[in-house]
Amino acid sequence: FHSRKTIILTKILNNYQRSKFYHSTSDEQNISLYSKTHQKGSIPCNNNDLIVIRLPKRTCDPCSRTKNVDLVVIVKSCVYCFEQRFVFTVGLPTPNETNTYHFDGFMTTLTIDAMQLSSKYDILSNESKIHNDMLIGAFHDTYFNLTSKMMLSLRWATNFCIPQSPLFLFIDDDYLLHPNNTINLIRKFNYSQMKSLAAGSVYFGKVDRPKNGYVSYNEYPWDYYPRYFLGIGYFLGADVVHDASIAMPFTKQFRIDDVYLGIILKRLNRTLTHLDNIHIHPGKHHLKSGAFMITRYLAENHVDWTTGLIIRKKRTEH
Q1: For this protein, what is the EC number (predicted)?
Q2: What CATH code would you report for 9-310?
């Protein structure tokens, strides 16, 4: 949505003895991941403290009577994305101002945007005070902490939001929501369906191992990932969010958050539903056919935000 209203939007920027996974090839030659059933008394392998610096007060506030809603939207954002978001979960700015990271013997260099300005924290704090809809975690906001950001979001939703909403939508801050199309989509599901839903743009692919090794065999020894959602946007029902937040401490962490969620959902035996109306590069024809996640270009040129109607391209004034 282009404003802070309608369906509640939440600003989110946001082994057990080493878990052992076994793989097998199904009829479709998809990799299935399983873990050994943990023994009584086993210690979680991925249960580091996720300290919260700020909680959103406008949404899912346990200290006030918040109206129940059909959908809570969690927008994944970053500390330097002030102009791109209107809601978010984020970590702290990095202390070393570097865009080069070393992991398991490999070096990754990110674009300049990924390392800009830890001095932005004061602006971040002020934004949180004004809007009261941000969840900020006490970890550095880097590419390799995306999984921690997702875990924080799910834990917060489990503890504060599940009694108030049956359904959650997680989206990147590169996209906006078209209100009418979003409402029309969720109205297709009844309450029970919402609670158990896991839906998005389903992807299944080979592990990326270029010459310099993006993912090492030590991190992930198999050739294919399980089915997972493209991280641009996906729906998780309250039951799925609850179960995933419990399963994660008992599942070895993987730094690619989209894939990690896919591993979790596979372990939980959840069916991933593919939604045809999610597009990485949506056009006006997609918007007309029900696309609910739209680019900033579509939002600024083809939507009348006073009515929510789809319009011809707006004329630019000279």
Answers
A1: 2.4.1.-
A2: 3.90.550
